[in-house]
Amino acid sequence: MALMITDECINCDVCEPECPNGAISQGDEIYVIDSNLCTECVGHFDEPQCRLVCPVDCIPNDPEHAESSEQLMTKYKRLSGLVG
User: Fold this and answer.
1) Which of 8, 30, 73, 77 has CA atoms 20 to 30 A from the CA of 22?
2) b/e burial code for range 50-65 (CB count within 10 A of at least 16 → b)
3) pTM for the model
4) Residue 11 lies in a domain
């Protein structure tokens, strides 16, 4: 399941550089996560790095983008160029 950033975001700028897939960017008002790029850090780390550094705990799972661990690994491989 991809992650999302809620409106509790305080724009502290700590999550964006932690994302190994470049899925986090500054939106109109708060940071946003591109669900096409978010793998919850599967393939890179044991847990989502953005969640580890977020001081306000505003990065839950995105219920509109449910994905299994296997789907996240497939996405990671595709994004990393490991599969075509």
Assistant:
1) 8
2) bbeebeeebbeebeee
3) 0.92
4) no
pLDDT tens by residue, 1-11: 799 999 999 99
Question: 20-49: b or e for each residue (b if 16 or more CB lie within 10 Å)?
Answer: ebebbeeeeeebebebebbbbbbbeeeebb
| Domain housing 23 | 16-79
- Per the prediction, the chain carries an average pLDDT of 95
Task: Give 37's DSSP letter.
Answer: T
pLDDT given for residue 84 in this prediction: 59
Q: Is 21 left (phi over 0), alpha (psi -120 to 50) or beta?
A: alpha
